[in-house]
Design brief:
Strand order of the largest sheet: 1-2
Largest sheet: 2 strands, antiparallel
Structural class: mainly alpha
Helix content: 55-70%
Number of helices: 21
Number of strands: 2
Length: 495
């Protein structure tokens, strides 16, 4: 989990030692880079395009080292089942004969046979199958779009050169080596949704354009169909921020605001809601019942929220299902309901977030945290991020892609710390902060492989999964490949 934290820590220490010892080292070289980088960043559309293309090119370039991944976690097979269903032009599948023998984790068999998860990740994987013949193409494209969306979002909050740097940091730390881009588990979809919502917020406040309202609504729709609860935790403070802005700045002008902002959002969300209701009706028989709820009713051992009480265990037909739900799942739920267990889980979640997004290289800017929290430029981002993360603690289970919508907020905080670090002075004669900030950026750039790998090492099963999958591939023949193409081993039978 932390196998590369040590080497990265050593690298960062050497970079800081260089910055302290030789604060003017490479100043002219860095100045030349910054001038050209700033000129490029001012071309905002080009910058967004560069971040997206860089992510796609970077991941494609390392395919000889990190080939197309094999599915490993049960969640992935559920998403692949959804992808196979959508790619064949269906919303769900009829219950297979003798379905009792084909029960699977995260899959519902009654009233139809389908994945329990929201549709967005399945649609992304299905698009990959349709466009490129493989679900991984969808993962690859979604990560490129994510990095472009992050750059676009940061342009609304930070100066353009810092927004471009943030997009490139996402390329280095997430787009190539994290499990978001090396599995079928997801992450990019919610990050895209969060970037669209948060990028549209200040643009709406500045210009009140209909297109920005539509972008925000599309982002909310993506969140609703990827991480509904975490998306709601993000949407609520965003809505409050908009309301506060209305009452402070737009008194007496509610009619133009209603037509330019509220109406487009309501119309888009109404269309998204109608589509979701139709999908629920086809899968569960009710337009207001999600497949996830059906799965929870079938296996009601550990509820989704820690304040909910568990129900008596059903009669399991398979030992592995019983071991999964009455073993690790139930133990985790019971531990989360104790004060000590809740505190331990919260600390573990923070540690995972730190190792995935920051690690040693991007921790240095956080030493300016007292100045970051007082920075008016990103004050609303900090408030929204804090409320969203606090709300996510109510969920029993956690993975890093659950809070993917907060990716751009975390990057904005880091970049703001870099901005403050850049102007920090040891004394009146030594302006070493700029050199330290440049050195951190340079370390992340020149040693992106190490930095990105250490971030993904936290809670990323990919290295282990790839090793086990390839080791067993020779013995299993094309079994895994068949599961990859169908979603599950019986994906083609449930038509």
């Amino acid at each position: 989990m932390t196998q590369l934290i040590g080497p990265e820590s050593l690298l960062v220490s050497l970079v800081l030692l260089l910055a302290v010892t030789f604060p003017q080292f490479g100043a002219s070289w860095f100045a030349w880079i910054e001038r050209n980088f700033g000129a490029l960043a001012r071309r905002k559309k080009i910058s967004v395009l560069i971040c997206g293309i860089a992510a796609l090119a970077f991941r494609a370039a390392i395919l000889p080292v990190l080939p197309v991944p094999l599915p490993f976690i049960q969640d992935e097979f559920s998403y692949l089942l959804a992808a196979d269903t959508f790619a064949h032009g269906r919303l769900t599948n009829p219950t297979p004969p003798m379905w009792e023998h084909f029960e699977a984790i995260h899959v519902i068999s009654q009233p139809t046979y389908a994945s329990k998860y929201p549709v967005m990740q399945g649609l992304i994987l299905a698009a990959g199958k349709v466009i490129g013949g493989h679900p991984f193409v969808g993962v690859w494209l979604s990560v490129g779009i994510m990095c472009a969306a992050i750059c676009w979002m940061l342009q609304a909050w930070l100066p353009p050169q810092w927004a471009l740097l943030g997009g490139l940091l996402a390329v280095m730390r997430i787009a190539a080596f994290s499990y978001w881009s090396n599995s079928y588990w997801g992450g990019a979809a919610a990050a895209i949704g969060g970037a669209l919502v948060l990028g549209a917020l200040p643009r709406i406040m500045r210009r009140q354009r209909v297109r920005d309202s539509i972008v925000m609504a599309l982002g909310l729709g993506i969140l609703a169909n990827s991480r509904p609860f975490e998306g709601l935790m993000l949407a609520l403070p965003v809505g409050v921020a908009l309301l506060i802005w209305i009452f402070r700045k737009r008194r007496g002008q509610f009619r133009p605001f209603a037509f330019r902002i509220v109406l487009p959002i309501v119309v888009v969300l109404a269309v998204v809601g109608a589509g979701m209701g139709y999908y629920f009706w086809r899968v569960t028989g009710s337009p207001v019942q999600m497949p996830y709820q059906v799965n929870q009713h079938q296996y009601p051992v550990a509820p989704y929220f820690i304040w909910q009480r568990s129900s008596p265990a059903p009669a399991f037909r398979h030992k592995r299902l019983e071991g999964y739900y009455l073993g690790a799942v139930q133990r985790h739920y019971l531990q989360m309901r104790t004060p000590l267990g809740f505190l331990q889980e919260t600390a573990l979640r923070v540690l995972k977030i730190w190792a995935f997004y920051l690690a040693p290289a991007l921790t240095i800017p956080l030493f300016t945290l007292p100045w970051i929290v007082r920075d008016r430029r990103i004050r609303w981002l900090i408030i929204i991020g804090a409320i969203s993360f606090a709300g996510s603690l109510a969920a029993t289970f956690f993975d890093l892609h659950y809070i993917a919508a907060l990716t751009c907020i975390i990057l904005a905080v880091v970049l703001t710390g870099m901005r403050h670090l850049r102007v920090w002075r040891w004394d009146e004669s030594m302006a070493m902060g700029g050199q330290a900030g440049r050195s951190v950026s340079c370390a992340c750039d020149r040693f992106g492989l190490c930095a990105g790998s250490s971030g993904s090492a936290c809670y990323s099963y990919y290295a282990c999964a790839f090793g086990r999958a390839t080791a067993g591939c020779a013995a299993r023949g094309h079994c895994v490949g068949a599961q990859l193409s169908t979603g599950t081993s019986i994906g083609n039978r449930a038509v």
